[in-house]
Amino acid sequence: MERKENLKIRLAAQSDFSWILSLYAGATRKMRDEGIDQWDERYPDREILLQDVERGEMLLLTMDGKPVSAVVLNAEQSPEYKAVEWHIGRVDPPGVIHRLCVGAQAQGKGLGKRTLEAAERRAYSLGYRTIRLDTFTKNPAAVKLYESAGYSRAGNVTFCKGTFICFEKLLDGET
Fold first, then answer.
1. d(C-alpha 11, C-alpha 110), whole Å
2. Least packed by Cβ within 10 Å: which of 44, 106, 109, 146?
3. What letter does residue 14 receive in the DSSP assignment?
4. How many angstroms separate the CA atoms of 85 and 66, rounded?
5. Would you say 167 and 133 are in contact if contact means Cβ atoms under 8 Å apart?
6. What pLDDT sits at residue 2?
7. Over 70: is that where the pLDDT of 3 sits?
8. CB within 8 A of 131, min separation 6: which ones?
9. Does residue 64 contact residue 100 with C-beta atoms inside 8 Å?
10. In Å, what is the CA distance from 52 to each residue of 3, 12, 111, 121?
11. Where are the domains positioned within the chain?
């Protein structure tokens, strides 16, 4: 008999913080094991993640009450985004997705897509009509996730770890 997963999306709370640290640490280790040098002990660090929670910007996808993925949504664009020729969202401020993370044990189950869709719904409910984000060129799973979710490439930016692809999507409220 197949067990039905009890998945829920909600804002992260301070009481989730130890789970959040564990979630990001596990995903960071898994990326390193796969040769993806995207995250480390400096980014995203404890202070950044705590700030995400305190500002009410982090969403958690939980399974049976335990966080299995997280994503941050706000309007903060990296200064490097100014050099990108964005195709949509020139008038209204876009929502920006940061630090989408699926726990190491939960990867490969479609939870990244569900987390992304939840962030899009929240963005739409907050009045954003476009989403922008970036992901490391050497993280093929993330690139595939965003492309399969209807995001368009807008250009590249360079951060300390290397080249990142900038993506954008027009939200229609149907996600």
1. 20
2. 109
3. G
4. 39
5. yes
6. 40
7. no
8. 94, 95, 96, 97, 119, 120, 123, 151, 168, 169, 171
9. no
10. 33, 9, 20, 18
11. 7-170
* Burial call 19-58: b when 16+ CB within 10 Å, e when fewer: bbeebbebbbeebeeeebebbeeeebeeeebeebbeeebb
Tokens 């209204």, residue located:
92
Residue 19 to residues 7, 8, 32, 41, 169, Cα–Cα distance (Å): 16, 15, 20, 16, 30
* Amino acid at residue number 59: L
7-170 is classed in which CATH architecture? 3-Layer(aba) Sandwich (3.40)
SS3 state at 84: coil
User: What pLDDT is recorded for position 23?
Assistant: 96
Per the structure block, which two tokens stand in for 57? Answer: 């910007």
**pLDDT digit string, tens, across residues 51-87:** 999 999 999 999 988 999 999 999 999 999 999 999 8
For the record, the structure tokens of 127 come out as: 């009045």
90: pLDDT confidence band, cut at 50, 70 and 90?
A: low
